[in-house]
Specification:
- The chain has 240 residues and is an all-alpha fold.
- It is 70% helix and 0% strand.
- The chain has helices at residues 17-48, 53-65, 68-79, 83-107, 111-119, 124-154, 169-176, 180-208, 231-239.
- It starts with 16 loop residues before the first helix and ends with a helix.
Length: 240
């Protein structure tokens, strides 16, 4: 067994401190990415067919309410004590945050902007990808920030099935070896990862939304249709 320093990890965890950090990020971020893809598809369907939104949101809420340990019991016969067993429930849990965020973001697109896109010949999917999603970026990233922080925190529960909890495994070892420093290292590192991920998402959102006033609201999303000119300039161009 290693020493009792902040970065010292017992050999039974089969990873170094940095190895556990990398594993923790892998088990936390892959579900967020998978959840985002699934949420985009569900949100698109919910926007096009409004009656779908309540049952989809209800289903996501019910899944979120199921304890991860119960889902592990069901999955473990099929995926074993593996990372996949941990990441599947984490992926499903992100939907309760991402689906309403994306749907609300798309619904916030002004009707005149959607009408302008339709007049330019944009079909439903092209309008979704090139008009609605770019304008909904702030709402989507707000959902991503919550989903990412929750996923980074919840990975630790994987320690219950074959030491698949990454940094969470240090918590079980802290009790087993009576080494409080392992618990401190696990909790502090998990919190730092969540903060760093949140900072990166804020930076990413700012890079994708240069038109968004920092610390304020969009002045007029109707003029942000990609490939179009701002409304006043359109009038000027049309008068020439």
């Amino acid at each position: 067994m290693s020493g009792d320093g902040f970065f010292d990890v017992p050999s039974d965890l089969q990873h170094s401190y940095l190895g556990l950090v990398a594993l923790h990020l892998e088990e936390a971020l892959i579900p967020v990415a998978g959840g985002l893809v699934l949420a985009l598809l569900l949100a698109q369907l919910c926007v096009r067919h409004g009656w779908l939104y309540p049952p989809v949101l209800w289903g996501a809420t019910v899944v979120y309410a199921i304890p991860s340990l119960a889902i592990f019991v069901v999955l473990i016969d099929y995926t074993g004590q593996s990372r996949t067993t941990v990441m599947i429930p984490l992926t499903l849990y992100t939907l309760v945050v991402l689906v309403p965020a994306i749907v609300d973001g798309i619904r916030s697109v002004p009707e005149e902007t959607q009408a302008a896109a339709t007049a330019m010949g944009f079909g439903p999917w092209r309008r979704f990808l090139r008009v609605e999603l770019p304008i909904a970026v702030p709402a989507i990233f707000a959902g991503l920030r919550g989903a990412t922080a929750a996923s980074i925190s919840l990975v630790s529960v994987g320690a219950l099935i074959g030491n698949q909890g990454a940094l969470g495994n240090m918590l079980t070892d802290a009790m087993f070896y009576h080494r409080p420093m392992l618990a401190v290292s696990s909790v502090v590192t998990t919190a730092v990862l969540a903060v760093l991920a949140d900072v990166l998402l804020v930076v990413g959102r700012n890079l994708l939304t240069p038109w968004l006033p920092r610390g304020g609201q969009v002045k007029n999303p109707a003029v942000m249709l990609p490939g179009t000119l701002p409304a006043p300039r359109q009038k000027l161009e049309s008068s020439r």
